[in-house]
Amino acid sequence: MENILSVRNLSTYFYMDEGVVAAVDDVSFDLSPKEVLGIVGETGSGKSVTVKSIMRLIKHPGKIVSGQIIYKGQDIMRFDEKEMYRIRGKEISMVFQDPMTSLNPLYTIGDQLMETIIQHQKVSKEEAYKRAVEMLGMVQIPEPEKRMKSYPFEFSGGMRQRVVIAIALSCNPSILIADEPTTALDVTIQAQILDLMKDLQQRLGTAMIFITHDLGVIASMAHRIIVMYGGKQIEVGSSDDVFYNPAHPYTHMLLRSIPRIDRKIDRLEPIPGQPPRMIDIPKVCPFLPRCPRNVDECNQKIPDMIEISQGHFVRCFNPVGGGN
Amino acid sequence: MRTETKRMIKRLLRNPSAVLGFSLLIFFTVIAIGAPLICPPQSYDPYMIPIVTWDKTPQPPSTEHPFGVIDGRDIFYGVIWGTRTAFKVGLIVTLTSTIIGLLIGSVAGYFGGWLDEILMRITDVFLSIPYILAAIVVTAFLGMGLNKVMISLIMFGWMATARLIRGNILQVREEQYVLAARALGVNDYLVILKHVLPNTIFPVVIQATMRIGSLVITAAALSFLGLGAPVGYADWGSLLNFARNWLLGASGEAFKYWYAIVYPGVAMVLFVLAWNLVGDALRDVFDPRLRG
After folding, report:
1. A110 occurs within a structural domain
2. Is the residue at A122 inside a domain?
3. What angle do CA B2, B203, B156 make, to 5 degrees?
4. Helical residues (DSSP H) of chain B, grouped into ranges
5. pTM of this prediction?
6. Count of domains forming chain A
7. How far is B264 from chain A (nearest CA, A)?
8. How many CA atoms within 13 Å lie on the side-chain side of B202?
9. Do B185 and A86 touch (CB under 8 A)?
């Protein structure tokens, strides 16, 4: 199937007084229509910066230094701000982490829903209103008509996130980017929101990029997974590949460090050491200082992404399981 | 909005000082609007206090001149029409300087970088000059007259607003809903207009309200120094200027000419009080951080 979005060699650096931070370094991936792509990684691994780069929302001192972002055959990196207004919200939409702060406290839910609809679609106010009510119903907010006049502070966290999702989906975007949409919610609400998103994704056929640091969440959502560490992709594969045959030592150790419901583990093993300081990192594998499987070659250069099985890529000279 | 508006009005009515402030303000507004009815103008320029006698010594209140006469002019007429002057000076100066401050502050805050640096250093320079002194010098330079006073007050009145709005914008533009709006394709100008400014404007409105009162005092001070309105203009400061020569009273009667000070003085104090109370009330209603 034709890819709806292709990211090629995307690098975003932050030029700080302390040095250059390679927040995203040479990231490439494809997204096909109706696919859910998960990006996992710990805090500071470059997940959010990757998607913000796709939306071209990087602010000074950050800069997209290289790469192509090809959306439906067009390189949107070449677009100017005006053309980006058409892409954002209409073609590619985004849901943020904290529903408490993603809504403007001064406007009603209805105003904020209608703002995006009117911005992107040439419709009258009445039609926008109807569409907004319909969207609120779709995200299962009871009495949507009444709720249009409510302010964000009258909503709970879970309901706000539903509204944010409704706004993001109101213009039928081809791609929905969800940046840790459930992190700020408690576990039961998390499950509800995830169910809702999965359901809407299947019903509307939206492709989705789903960012999280929660492996449990990603396992239930994504078809394919990208594991990021230190601004680099270190493993890409189908959900099953990554969970059952992790090839990169980091993924492998990460999965051994969390409790699993499907497998009995006697002892959880933490990964020794700290995530790398991101300033002026040497051109080697970012996981090297913590890696028990390092070989001589690791100290000399950064490994390329190699395909160890159909659609399963890893960036390692000495992958777990010898690469099969 | 309706429930929220109701809640606000309820909160206002429960606060006695807010009620007092708004009542005073309404009272002054009625006087300003009804000035031609209360004191029909007697010359082509209604703002010039008519001369009722050529005798320069003050005359105490009488039925014909309820607030007395000073410098041959009716104090009652001056106080009534002076309300209009007070509103005019306060509103025009505050509105204009607030708009200038808003423009400079929001440009500096939203765009940041070197533009911010330059604009804020200019603001610092203006702030470093003592307000009254600057106003006196500029008025003296431009020439006398109420308009000139207003120009000088505007020139040196925008800095606080600029700083306030810049600080608030720096804070608000980092909010996630601003990023979210941009991610949904709302363009930059709409983001400033709809999401950044409304979230930063309340402190400015409150500050401006309070400033209207104090501006009237400053303008009166300039008039008192003889820099403001022309002689005979209906302006509380000018009335006090007339009273300057009679401040000490007559020999043995310190308070002989009390009416020359008290009536315009009370008008001014109440006017300033009204705006301050209204400003306080607005702050209590709008500023969510002070909500108890």
Report:
1. yes
2. yes
3. 140
4. 2-13, 16-38, 75-111, 113-128, 131-142, 146-155, 159-172, 176-183, 188-190, 201-224, 236-243, 258-286
5. 0.72
6. 1
7. 42
8. 14
9. yes
Cα B169 to chain center, whole Å? 25
Residue type, B217: I
pLDDT in tens, A189-232: 888 888 999 999 999 889 999 998 888 888 888 899 999 998 89
State the Cα–Cα distance between residues A298 and A276, nearest whole angstrom.
Answer: 16
Residues B61-91 have pLDDT tens digits of: 888 888 888 888 888 988 999 999 999 999 9
- Check which CATH number belongs to the domain holding A123 and give it: 3.40.50.300
Contacts of B1 in chain A (CB under 8 A): 108, 149
List CB contacts (< 8 A) between A105 and chain B: 177, 199
User: How far apart are the CA of A293 and the nearest CA of chain B, in angstroms?
Assistant: 41
* CA B81 to the chain's CA centroid: 16
Structure tokens at A221: 């959502």
Can you tell me which residue has the tokens 């309901």? Answer: A159
Q: Containing domain of residue A189, as a range?
A: 89-222
Residues from chain A that touch B199, judged by Cβ atoms under 8 A, are: 104-106
Q: A38 in a domain, yes or no?
A: no
pLDDT (tens digit, 9 = 90+) per residue, B229-285?
888 888 888 888 888 878 777 777 777 788 888 888 999 999 999 999 998 888 877
For an interface test with A, give the residue of B177, B187, B190 to mutate (most A CBs within 10 A): B177
Residues in chain A: 324
| A126: in domain | yes
Q: What single letter denotes the amino acid at residue A154?
A: E
In whole angstroms, what separates CA A158 from the centre of its chain? 19
Q: What angle do CA A172, A69, A76 make, to 5 degrees?
A: 70
Chain A residues within 8 angstroms (CB to CB) of chain B:
55, 57, 60, 81-82, 84-90, 93-94, 96-98, 101-108, 115-116, 119-120, 149, 151, 164, 167-168
User: Would you state the structure tokens that stand for residue A20, as one six-digit string?
Assistant: 């250059």
CB A4 within 8 A of CB A32: yes
Chain B interface, mutation test: which of A48, A102, A103, A107, most B Cβ atoms within 10 Å? A102
